[in-house]
Protein backbone atom coordinates (compact mmCIF):
# COMPACT_ATOMS: atom_id res chain seq x y z
CA UNK A 1 0.00 0.00 0.00
CA UNK A 2 1.47 3.38 -0.95
CA UNK A 3 1.66 6.13 1.60
CA UNK A 4 -1.12 8.06 -0.07
CA UNK A 5 -3.42 5.03 -0.17
CA UNK A 6 -2.74 4.57 3.55
CA UNK A 7 -3.52 8.23 4.28
CA UNK A 8 -6.70 8.05 2.20
CA UNK A 9 -7.73 4.96 4.16
CA UNK A 10 -7.55 7.02 7.35
CA UNK A 11 -9.36 9.90 5.70
CA UNK A 12 -12.23 7.93 4.13
CA UNK A 13 -13.74 5.87 6.91
CA UNK A 14 -15.30 2.77 5.41
CA UNK A 15 -17.89 1.20 7.70
CA UNK A 16 -17.54 -2.13 9.40
CA UNK A 17 -20.03 -4.55 7.81
CA UNK A 18 -21.66 -5.17 11.19
CA UNK A 19 -22.37 -1.48 11.73
CA UNK A 20 -24.70 -1.50 8.74
CA UNK A 21 -28.45 -1.37 9.02
CA UNK A 22 -29.00 -2.51 5.42
CA UNK A 23 -26.85 -3.89 2.62
CA UNK A 24 -27.73 -4.37 -1.03
CA UNK A 25 -26.15 -7.30 -2.92
CA UNK A 26 -26.34 -6.85 -6.68
CA UNK A 27 -25.74 -10.17 -8.43
CA UNK A 28 -25.82 -11.20 -12.10
CA UNK A 29 -27.56 -14.56 -11.56
CA UNK A 30 -29.42 -16.34 -8.81
CA UNK A 31 -26.55 -18.09 -6.91
CA UNK A 32 -23.65 -15.63 -7.37
CA UNK A 33 -24.01 -13.88 -4.00
CA UNK A 34 -24.61 -17.20 -2.21
CA UNK A 35 -21.40 -18.60 -3.68
CA UNK A 36 -19.26 -15.53 -3.16
CA UNK A 37 -20.53 -14.05 0.10
CA UNK A 38 -23.11 -16.48 1.49
CA UNK A 39 -21.35 -16.92 4.83
CA UNK A 40 -21.11 -13.16 5.25
CA UNK A 41 -24.82 -12.85 4.45
CA UNK A 42 -25.61 -15.54 7.01
CA UNK A 43 -23.53 -13.88 9.73
CA UNK A 44 -24.77 -10.36 9.04
CA UNK A 45 -28.43 -11.35 8.98
CA UNK A 46 -27.87 -13.21 12.24
CA UNK A 47 -26.62 -9.88 13.63
CA UNK A 48 -29.75 -8.06 12.48
CA UNK A 49 -28.43 -6.46 9.29
CA UNK A 50 -31.13 -6.42 6.60
CA UNK A 51 -29.74 -8.06 3.46
CA UNK A 52 -31.37 -7.34 0.09
CA UNK A 53 -30.53 -9.29 -3.07
CA UNK A 54 -31.00 -7.53 -6.38
CA UNK A 55 -30.66 -10.11 -9.17
CA UNK A 56 -30.02 -8.58 -12.56
CA UNK A 57 -30.88 -11.43 -14.95
CA UNK A 58 -33.63 -14.01 -14.97
CA UNK A 59 -31.13 -16.88 -14.92
CA UNK A 60 -32.80 -18.46 -17.95
CA UNK A 61 -29.56 -19.29 -19.80
CA UNK A 62 -27.90 -21.32 -17.06
CA UNK A 63 -28.26 -24.79 -18.51
CA UNK A 64 -26.95 -26.90 -21.37
CA UNK A 65 -30.32 -28.61 -21.58
CA UNK A 66 -32.10 -26.99 -24.51
CA UNK A 67 -35.49 -28.19 -23.24
CA UNK A 68 -35.52 -26.11 -20.07
CA UNK A 69 -33.67 -22.90 -20.95
CA UNK A 70 -35.69 -19.68 -20.85
CA UNK A 71 -38.84 -19.08 -18.84
CA UNK A 72 -39.01 -22.55 -17.29
CA UNK A 73 -35.40 -22.48 -16.05
CA UNK A 74 -35.90 -18.95 -14.81
CA UNK A 75 -38.82 -20.08 -12.62
CA UNK A 76 -36.83 -23.03 -11.27
CA UNK A 77 -33.88 -20.79 -10.44
CA UNK A 78 -36.05 -18.23 -8.68
CA UNK A 79 -37.47 -20.88 -6.40
CA UNK A 80 -33.95 -22.24 -5.77
CA UNK A 81 -32.83 -18.72 -4.84
CA UNK A 82 -35.80 -18.35 -2.49
CA UNK A 83 -34.85 -21.56 -0.69
CA UNK A 84 -31.22 -20.49 -0.41
CA UNK A 85 -32.21 -17.02 0.79
CA UNK A 86 -34.34 -18.53 3.54
CA UNK A 87 -31.34 -20.51 4.80
CA UNK A 88 -29.10 -17.42 4.84
CA UNK A 89 -31.70 -15.08 6.31
CA UNK A 90 -31.91 -12.73 3.31
CA UNK A 91 -34.50 -10.04 4.02
CA UNK A 92 -35.81 -9.49 0.48
CA UNK A 93 -35.26 -10.70 -3.08
CA UNK A 94 -35.67 -8.25 -5.95
CA UNK A 95 -35.52 -9.27 -9.61
CA UNK A 96 -34.65 -7.01 -12.54
CA UNK A 97 -35.41 -9.86 -14.95
CA UNK A 98 -33.09 -8.84 -17.75
CA UNK A 99 -32.62 -11.74 -20.14
CA UNK A 100 -29.76 -13.98 -19.03
CA UNK A 101 -26.98 -13.46 -21.62
CA UNK A 102 -29.31 -10.98 -23.32
CA UNK A 103 -28.47 -7.67 -24.96
CA UNK A 104 -29.40 -5.34 -22.08
CA UNK A 105 -26.83 -2.62 -21.35
CA UNK A 106 -24.67 -1.42 -18.47
CA UNK A 107 -26.68 1.82 -18.52
CA UNK A 108 -29.92 -0.09 -17.95
CA UNK A 109 -28.40 -1.92 -14.99
CA UNK A 110 -27.09 1.40 -13.67
CA UNK A 111 -30.50 3.09 -13.88
CA UNK A 112 -32.40 0.25 -12.20
CA UNK A 113 -29.77 -0.21 -9.49
CA UNK A 114 -29.71 3.53 -8.78
CA UNK A 115 -33.49 3.44 -8.32
CA UNK A 116 -33.18 0.64 -5.77
CA UNK A 117 -30.30 2.37 -3.97
CA UNK A 118 -32.57 5.40 -3.55
CA UNK A 119 -35.45 3.22 -2.40
CA UNK A 120 -33.68 0.78 -0.07
CA UNK A 121 -31.01 3.20 1.24
CA UNK A 122 -28.29 0.60 1.85
CA UNK A 123 -25.14 1.46 3.81
CA UNK A 124 -23.02 -0.70 1.52
CA UNK A 125 -23.58 -1.99 -2.02
CA UNK A 126 -22.00 -5.39 -2.68
CA UNK A 127 -21.44 -6.64 -6.22
CA UNK A 128 -19.17 -8.74 -8.45
CA UNK A 129 -15.83 -7.12 -9.21
CA UNK A 130 -16.09 -5.96 -12.84
CA UNK A 131 -12.33 -5.44 -12.86
CA UNK A 132 -11.62 -9.12 -12.23
CA UNK A 133 -8.78 -10.05 -14.56
CA UNK A 134 -9.88 -12.71 -17.08
CA UNK A 135 -13.59 -12.40 -16.26
CA UNK A 136 -15.36 -12.82 -19.58
CA UNK A 137 -18.99 -13.48 -18.65
CA UNK A 138 -20.97 -10.51 -20.03
CA UNK A 139 -23.62 -10.66 -17.27
CA UNK A 140 -20.91 -10.41 -14.62
CA UNK A 141 -19.11 -7.56 -16.35
CA UNK A 142 -22.33 -5.61 -17.00
CA UNK A 143 -23.70 -6.21 -13.49
CA UNK A 144 -20.46 -5.24 -11.75
CA UNK A 145 -19.99 -2.16 -13.89
CA UNK A 146 -23.66 -1.10 -13.81
CA UNK A 147 -23.84 -1.47 -10.01
CA UNK A 148 -20.54 0.39 -9.57
CA UNK A 149 -21.70 3.24 -11.78
CA UNK A 150 -24.99 3.36 -9.87
CA UNK A 151 -23.14 3.53 -6.55
CA UNK A 152 -21.05 6.40 -7.86
CA UNK A 153 -23.84 8.33 -9.63
CA UNK A 154 -27.18 7.52 -7.96
CA UNK A 155 -27.57 11.05 -6.60
CA UNK A 156 -27.64 12.66 -10.04
CA UNK A 157 -31.14 13.45 -11.38
CA UNK A 158 -29.89 12.55 -14.85
CA UNK A 159 -29.37 8.98 -13.60
CA UNK A 160 -32.40 8.93 -11.33
CA UNK A 161 -34.96 11.76 -11.35
CA UNK A 162 -35.54 13.67 -8.12
CA UNK A 163 -33.24 14.11 -5.14
CA UNK A 164 -31.98 11.98 -2.28
CA UNK A 165 -30.16 12.72 0.95
CA UNK A 166 -29.06 9.12 1.41
CA UNK A 167 -25.36 8.38 1.41
CA UNK A 168 -23.97 4.96 0.46
CA UNK A 169 -20.86 4.58 2.59
CA UNK A 170 -19.00 1.94 0.58
CA UNK A 171 -18.99 -0.44 -2.33
CA UNK A 172 -17.75 -3.94 -1.62
CA UNK A 173 -16.66 -6.19 -4.46
CA UNK A 174 -16.87 -9.95 -4.15
CA UNK A 175 -14.99 -12.36 -6.43
CA UNK A 176 -12.13 -9.91 -6.39
CA UNK A 177 -8.45 -10.45 -7.14
CA UNK A 178 -7.55 -7.42 -5.00
CA UNK A 179 -9.12 -8.01 -1.57
CA UNK A 180 -8.46 -5.47 1.17
CA UNK A 181 -11.02 -6.78 3.67
CA UNK A 182 -11.14 -10.30 5.12
CA UNK A 183 -14.43 -10.70 6.95
CA UNK A 184 -14.21 -13.42 9.55
CA UNK A 185 -16.91 -16.07 9.56
CA UNK A 186 -17.56 -19.12 11.71
CA UNK A 187 -17.76 -22.73 10.58
CA UNK A 188 -21.55 -22.62 10.95
CA UNK A 189 -21.82 -19.71 8.52
CA UNK A 190 -19.72 -21.61 5.99
CA UNK A 191 -21.95 -24.66 6.45
CA UNK A 192 -25.08 -22.59 5.89
CA UNK A 193 -23.54 -21.13 2.76
CA UNK A 194 -22.78 -24.60 1.39
CA UNK A 195 -26.32 -25.70 2.22
CA UNK A 196 -27.67 -22.60 0.45
CA UNK A 197 -25.56 -23.33 -2.62
CA UNK A 198 -26.88 -26.89 -2.65
CA UNK A 199 -30.38 -25.46 -3.20
CA UNK A 200 -29.30 -24.40 -6.69
CA UNK A 201 -29.87 -27.90 -8.01
CA UNK A 202 -30.32 -26.81 -11.61
CA UNK A 203 -26.74 -25.51 -11.53
CA UNK A 204 -24.82 -28.20 -9.70
CA UNK A 205 -24.91 -31.98 -9.80
CA UNK A 206 -23.49 -33.94 -6.89
CA UNK A 207 -19.97 -34.01 -8.30
CA UNK A 208 -19.70 -30.32 -9.11
CA UNK A 209 -21.25 -29.48 -5.74
CA UNK A 210 -18.51 -31.49 -4.02
CA UNK A 211 -15.82 -29.72 -6.02
CA UNK A 212 -17.33 -26.31 -5.32
CA UNK A 213 -17.62 -27.07 -1.59
CA UNK A 214 -13.97 -28.11 -1.51
CA UNK A 215 -12.89 -25.00 -3.42
CA UNK A 216 -14.91 -22.58 -1.30
CA UNK A 217 -13.81 -24.19 1.95
CA UNK A 218 -10.15 -23.92 0.92
CA UNK A 219 -10.66 -20.36 -0.30
CA UNK A 220 -12.15 -19.39 3.08
CA UNK A 221 -8.99 -20.40 4.99
CA UNK A 222 -6.86 -17.39 5.83
CA UNK A 223 -4.33 -17.00 8.63
CA UNK A 224 -5.85 -19.77 10.79
CA UNK A 225 -9.27 -18.20 10.37
CA UNK A 226 -12.24 -18.58 8.07
CA UNK A 227 -13.02 -15.52 5.99
CA UNK A 228 -14.71 -14.18 2.91
CA UNK A 229 -12.62 -11.65 1.01
CA UNK A 230 -13.78 -8.32 -0.42
CA UNK A 231 -12.39 -5.19 -2.00
CA UNK A 232 -14.09 -2.37 -0.12
CA UNK A 233 -13.92 1.19 -1.42
CA UNK A 234 -15.59 4.46 -0.48
CA UNK A 235 -17.79 5.37 -3.48
CA UNK A 236 -15.69 8.52 -4.03
CA UNK A 237 -12.84 6.30 -5.13
CA UNK A 238 -14.84 4.96 -8.08
CA UNK A 239 -13.85 7.97 -10.15
CA UNK A 240 -10.49 9.56 -11.07
CA UNK A 241 -8.53 8.00 -8.20
CA UNK A 242 -5.66 5.69 -9.15
CA UNK A 243 -5.07 5.06 -5.42
CA UNK A 244 -8.17 2.85 -5.49
CA UNK A 245 -5.99 0.02 -6.85
CA UNK A 246 -3.95 -0.19 -3.68
CA UNK A 247 -6.54 1.08 -1.23
ZN1 LIG B 1 -23.18 -15.69 -12.42
Q: What about the largest sheet?
A: 8 strands, mixed
| Total domain count | 1
Could you tell me the mean pLDDT?
A: 95
Give the topology string: H per helix, E per strand.
HEHEHEHEHEEHHEE
Quick structural overview:
The protein is α/β, with parallel strands linked by helices and 247 residues long.
Describe the protein's architecture and organization.
The protein has seven helices and eight strands, in the order αβαβαβαβαββααββ. The protein is an alpha/beta fold and 247 residues long. The chain has one domain: 3-Layer(aba) Sandwich (Rossmann fold). Strands 1, 2, 3, 4, 5, 6, 7 and 8 form an eight-stranded mixed beta sheet that branches. The termini are close together. The model has no long low-confidence stretch (mean pLDDT 95). The structure holds zinc ion. Zinc ion binds at residues 28-29, 32, 140. The site of zinc ion has 4 residues, from loops.
Overview features:
247 residues; alpha/beta; Rossmann fold; 8-stranded mixed sheet; 40% helix; binds zinc ion
Write the layout of secondary structure elements.
Elements lengths: L2 H9 L10 E6 L4 H15 L3 E8 L13 H18 L3 E7 L7 H15 L3 E5 L9 H16 L16 E5 L6 E5 L1 H12 L7 H15 E2 L2 E9 L14
Parallel strand pairs: 1-2, 1-4, 2-3, 4-5
Antiparallel strand pairs: 5-8, 6-8, 7-8
Helix pairs in contact: 2-3, 2-6, 3-6, 4-5, 6-7
The structure holds zinc ion.
Zinc ion binds next to loops.
Amino acid sequence: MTDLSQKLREFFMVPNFEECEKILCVQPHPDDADISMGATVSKLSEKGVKVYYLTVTDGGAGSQDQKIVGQRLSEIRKSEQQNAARILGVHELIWLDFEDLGDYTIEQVRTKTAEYIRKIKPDIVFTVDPFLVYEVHPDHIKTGMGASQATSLYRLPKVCPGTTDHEVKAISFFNTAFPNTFYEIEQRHLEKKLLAIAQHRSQFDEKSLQMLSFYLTERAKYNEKLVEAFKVLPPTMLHVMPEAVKF
